[in-house]
Amino acid sequence: MAMTAVARETVFALRRQIAKIEGTLPERLAAPAAAPFDADVNTDLTIVRRGIAAALPDAFLPIGVGRLDAALSGGLPKAALSEIHGLETRDAGAVAGFALSLTSLILKQTPGLPVLWIGTSEIFREAGFPYARGLHASFGIEPEQLLFSEAPRLVDALWVAEEAARMTALAAVILEIRGNPQRLDLTATRRLHARAQAAGRPVFLLRQAAGPEPTAAPVRLIVASAPAVPRDTIAGPLAGSIGRPAFTLTIGKSRTALPGQFTLEWNPDERAFNERAGEARDRAKNPVPVVSLSGGGKNPAPASGAVLAFPAVGSPISPAARDQPSRPQRTAHLGPRRAG
Amino acid sequence: MISHRDRNAQRISALDERAEALHLKRDMGIADARAMHPSIDVVEADPEADRRLLEGLADWCDRYTPLVALDGADGLFLDVTGCTHLFGGERAMLDDILSRFFHQGFDVRAGLAATPGAAWAAARFCGDRIVVSGEEEALLAPLPLAALRIEPSTRTSLESVGLRTAGAVMAAPRAPLARRFGALLLLRLDQALGRLDEAVSPRLPVAPLSVERHLAEPVTLTEDIERLVGMLAATLKTDLERRGEGARTLALLLFRVDGAVSRIALGTSRPMREPMLIQKLFHERLAALEQDIDAGYGFDLVRLSVLASATFDMQQADLAGEVTDDGADIALFADRIRARLGDGAVLRPVAVESHLPERAVATIPFTDAPCRTTPPKKPDRLQAPKTIFPPERPIRLFRSPEPIDVPATEMPEGPPLNFRWRRALYRVKRAEGPERIAAEWWREAPSDEEASTRDYFRIEDADGRRYWLYRQGLYGGASQVPPRWFLHGVFA
């Protein structure tokens, strides 16, 4: 236990250093209970606020679930590339659904702007073409607002996405790609991210059946379907029925957030997310700690073992272990970058 | 020597000078020719290839006039009315045409006259002659009857009565000629003499506006072509402004030195006249076509034509000089994507009144219909049939429903207990349905009506994924075809 505590201190110090460099707000970092944190902040930490993310007050898109927003330090960055992963192609419905709910949230703020959905022919064939009637019913996106672009090759899809990402006339750009193609590397995502930042519009990179790899996106979320609750009727829940869409959300990567898992439910009528109460309670009661916690169940999120770059031994199911790039990938990323 | 098959015999259809020197003639049998000269080289005729070559030449002749028409299998009509001064007069133009064709390796005969008939006769029987208006009669009179463009049968019957030249026919009384040889003879005669108008119907639609630039030094680089497009578009802009129009379809014609013509057309979503934007669009198009366009020895004529135009609605800029129109951005973006990736690259869904899910939405290529920048007002018509619980529709629909394997259902008409899709077994936890969607009898043949009745189910599997399945056909129907199951879409 003593070693973990030391490691935790080191990690925290390092993260504060990173926060200082990046200009994120220090109070969003969860401090270990024992650290003399507040005194430090006021005296010697000068936060240089750089980049749009820290500069604008509405730089974040609040998802509307308190715990998740807090974890993501205010929500998803609005002017950025965000990765939304599905572990298998059959999760395409959930991944697309989650991205569309985010789009729907954006459209609440910027009504009427069109949304562009770019995909390769492969993904539209494998996972189905977006169906405008369903999108209208579930996410309130009018068919007139939708634009689709189907590119036969990944290069073309990336080109369309880059062109679209710099447009302010689009509410959001969704780029859907299957697998881990070599062309979608750090450089390509960095270009997308830079354009999204310049235009101030989000680009959602949906990656079906893809493993995590280093990209320029500040946030990576892993989405899977969650069983829906039964429909609510006046006479109580209707047995055997399938209610509102639900997603299991795992934060795979974030500069500020601690890894965590959330079950969200999309309310198509109000176009808003709710966290499923039962799940949250269960989780609070029976959290999935990466390292054993000494504290009570009041605030289980800062299980800081998960921020370590290497997975804790003996917990193969931890979400953090799955989302960190594996060793060869990481070395490839740290090595000299490929051109193009 | 080129042969063709005519009534089961190979006959000579064309021959070169060396063969002519051997006293071989057209329409002579190949067997006879071989008997005379066993060493002749015979090639089978390929009318298709000849046709393609002629069309290629017609394309190239576009540089002189937009009105180019094919004439039979071996001739071209060029309506050069109003074009000759661009090339320094009629004689200079004719010389230019002849010399360019000669350098390309063609043996061309040309005639220039005020009527197509006279020009035809001049080209074929006099060679390289310019007939001044009014001299048609003098030109035609000594020529044989073939110069009148008449049927061979008419010609032989005219010859049989002693009329051997066009002049003889002209001198003969008209009424008996018409009675005996048909109206066509006199029609051709009148057309040749300019008494009746004859229109040359061009192969390609004539562009309402086009600008071109002749280059002393051929260009080969794509960047140069793009710059030229920008310059031409700037010229085009003033013309378009004068008409109050913007271009909807543009074509760029690149005339290569050796006679090949590349035609690059692109459409715009809304009327456009800004040279910068036009240049940008052609930049994308040229980038996409980089492999297909072979500059060869370079292009010596670049022409930009407006094939279709539409009224350009002006927009008032605000005091800062900025026009706030998001739709224009989208339209331009879509144009650029389409210029590079083809017309189907940007699609727009349109709701269609249909019960069948795959027909209820049509995706069409993005067109000029401007994107609504304000939330659309719902008409009352749409509000009326809205039910309290609209049927649930998936967010993704497969292009063609994917067949799934359903081993068993709980009830014959009920949802499956499990199913196999793409070789994986899915266990059904919960199901909603059925929602029965019948075939559209007004579209489909009534015979397979029963088979195409579908019962849709919403399914949730053990992992919480939601699918849209349907059973096609009914159990125990008259057709005795067992129902089949399909997976049609996925829910969020």
UniProtKB/TrEMBL annotation, chain A:
InterPro entries on file: ImuA, P-loop_NTPase
Region feature (Disordered): 315-340
Protein name per Swiss-Prot or TrEMBL: Protein ImuA
Organism for this UniProt entry: Mesorhizobium ciceri biovar biserrulae (strain HAMBI 2942 / LMG 23838 / WSM1271)
Automatic annotation (TrEMBL), chain B:
Top-level taxonomic group: Bacteria
The protein's name: Uncharacterized protein
Boundaries of every DUF6504 domain copy: 408-490
Keyword match DNA damage: yes
Gene3D superfamilies: 3.30.70.270, 3.40.1170.60
CDD domains: PolY_like
Any GO BP: DNA repair
UmuC domain mapped to chain residues: 7-123
UniProt source species: Mesorhizobium ciceri biovar biserrulae (strain HAMBI 2942 / LMG 23838 / WSM1271)
Alphabetical list of InterPro entries matching this protein: DNA/RNA_pol_sf (IPR043502), DUF6504 (IPR045443), Rev_trsase/Diguanyl_cyclase (IPR043128), SulA_CellDiv_inhibitor (IPR050356), UmuC (IPR001126)
SUPFAM superfamilies: DNA/RNA polymerases (SSF56672)
Region Disordered: start-end pairs: 367-386
Keyword Membrane: no
Keywords, ordered alphabetically: DNA damage
UniProt record similarity statement: Belongs to the DNA polymerase type-Y family.
